[in-house]
From TrEMBL:
Database matches in Pfam families: Polysacc_deac_1 (PF01522)
Protein origin, superkingdom: Bacteria
Chief location category: secreted
UniProt GO MF annotations: hydrolase activity, acting on carbon-nitrogen (but not peptide) bonds
Source lineage: Bacteria, Bacillati, Bacillota, Bacilli, Bacillales
Domain NodB homology span(s) in chain numbering: 99-290
PROSITE patterns: NODB (PS51677)
Record carries keyword Glycosyltransferase: no
Organism whose genome encodes this protein: Paenibacillus contaminans
Annotated GO CC locations: extracellular region
Keywords, comma-separated and alphabetical: Signal
GO biological process, one term: carbohydrate metabolic process
Cellular localisation: Secreted
Record protein name field: Polysaccharide deacetylase
Length: 290
């Protein structure tokens, strides 16, 4: 081999080695296992196309930010799994891939269909929405638009999940206990006409009938599915869990932050939906849990 040829060979070999190293790093990057037999559930609320100048409300994330989150999850090797796979993991011991992430959205805003759904489809990702039944049944021109049953049928046909955020308990009610407004799911309501607090049996019946009514509406409009509940305002107590279980609720979604392991009926969720939450922010937040 002449000297020139030898140099060329060395350069080529070094180049190949460098390329192989880069390739190795790439595969390494996506095959990293942060956690196994555990799952992270993210919670979002409203997603909207927003010009940078527009002041975003609390719990509203720009559509571009959602896209950044999905890109980060994909490039860092997280696996977005369906709600069904997650419920099977939590309740029936079914296995899930490492670095499993579940996407959830609360409150049933129409923006889930108009703004989030197209992005989710592009990434081949599934997500679930916890809707407030009455907001989809009764149109309120004064409120932010909510999902229609027709839109929900289309979402479900594309693998998205629709679950309960109560039928009509996503509100504050006057409570005797403290003399102030409390979440309707956990408050002992002050009964105006009877001039007293509701009794425990009355309270239990109010909760049970609300939860079973929305499950009935789901069955009528969307067909049978698992019964899952996200607590409005994250508020719950033992009685809610008891009445929920009676109403057939299998998993309860809280806003306590953490990572999930099978056996618990209360699901922890990490908030990813505030306007300032960039993909770097989310990544740093996630690393606190594994
Ligand atoms: Zn809510």
């Amino acid at each position: 081999m002449s000297y020139t040829r030898y140099v060329m060979f060395v350069v080529l070999a070094a180049g190949l080695a460098a390329a192989a190293a880069v390739l190795h790093l790439r595969t390494e990057g996506t095959s990293l296992i942060y956690y196994k037999d555990k799952a992270i559930v993210l919670v979002y609320h409203d997603i909207r196309q927003m010009p940078a100048s527009e002041e975003a409300g609390a719990s509203t994330l720009g559509a571009d930010r959602l896209e950044d989150h999905l890109m980060m999850l994909e490039s860092r090797g997280f696996q977005i799994i369906s709600m069904d796979a997650f419920a099977g993991f939590m309740l029936e011991g079914r296995s899930i891939p490492p670095n499993a992430v579940i996407l959830t959205f609360d409150d049933g805003y129409e923006s889930f269909y108009s703004d989030a759904f197209p992005i989710l489809k592009r990434f081949g990702a599934t997500a679930s929405n916890f809707i407030v039944g009455i907001s989809s049944d009764l149109f309120n021109p004064d409120a932010e638009p909510h999902l229609t049953w027709e839109q929900m049928r289309e979402l479900k046909a594309h693998g998205m999940g629709i679950y309960s955020h109560t039928y009509n308990l996503h509100r504050m009610v006057p409570a005797d206990r403290t003399g102030s407004e409390e979440p309707a799911l956990t408050a002992r309501m002050h009964l105006e006409q009877k001039r007293r607090s509701e009794t425990e049996p009355e309270y239990r019946r109010r909760i049970f009938s609300d939860l079973t009514f929305l499950e009935k509406r789901f069955e009528q409009e969307l067909g049978r599915d698992r019964s899952l509940l996200a607590f409005p305002f994250g508020s719950y107590d033992e009685l809610v869990l008891e009445e929920g279980a009676k109403a057939g609720i299998e998993l309860f979604f809280s806003v306590e932050e953490g990572i999930n392991v099978p056996g618990s009926r209360i699901v922890k969720r990490i908030n990813a939906g505030e306007p300032y939450m960039t993909s770097d922010y989310l990544w740093n937040r996630l690393t606190a849990f594994f």
